[in-house]
Recover the amino acids of this structure.
């Protein structure tokens, strides 16, 4: 029997609507070495979303990461970097789903703006880290799996 892991959105009600409202700022907790474990997004609907990673054992040494979402107080986020206004007009959001013999897991998402910019957020190659790809994000993109390994599904 295959394991199935869906996004846990209990702490982030109306997540798709919030992301669809657009983004106005972001922050990460970049450690001295390695990629971040947490991303904060200020949504254009006024909420602040914290994105993290949960790991799930598949057996042996294999595991798969999925994103966690939680709406938090703006006071619980670090200083945020403002984004250009083009990030407030979202064209589409897609879930990134990993499908294998062992599991089906909603692992990440891609947000596309009307200007053609994209933000991809998936679990990182290092456990409990995030990989992010966006024109505003300067660190290397080191995902757990190549983006082509994920199916794109409606949010």
């Amino acid at each position: 029997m295959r394991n199935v892991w869906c996004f846990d959105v209990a702490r982030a009600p109306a997540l798709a609507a919030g992301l669809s409202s657009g983004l106005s700022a972001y922050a990460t907790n970049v450690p001295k070495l390695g990629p971040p474990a947490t991303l904060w997004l200020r949504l254009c609907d006024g909420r602040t979303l914290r994105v993290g990673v949960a790991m799930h054992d598949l057996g042996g040494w294999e595991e798969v990461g999925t994103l966690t979402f939680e709406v938090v107080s703006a006071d619980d986020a670090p200083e945020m970097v403002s984004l250009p206004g083009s990030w407030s007009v979202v064209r589409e959001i897609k879930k990134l789903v990993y499908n294998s013999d062992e599991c089906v897991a909603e692992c990440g998402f891609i947000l596309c703006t009307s200007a053609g910019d994209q933000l991809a957020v998936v679990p990182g190659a290092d456990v409990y880290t995030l990989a992010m790809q966006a024109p505003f994000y300067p660190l290397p993109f080191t995902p757990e799996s190549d983006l082509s390994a994920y199916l794109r599904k409606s949010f």
The CA atoms of residues 23 and 87 lie 5 Å apart. The mean pLDDT is 90.
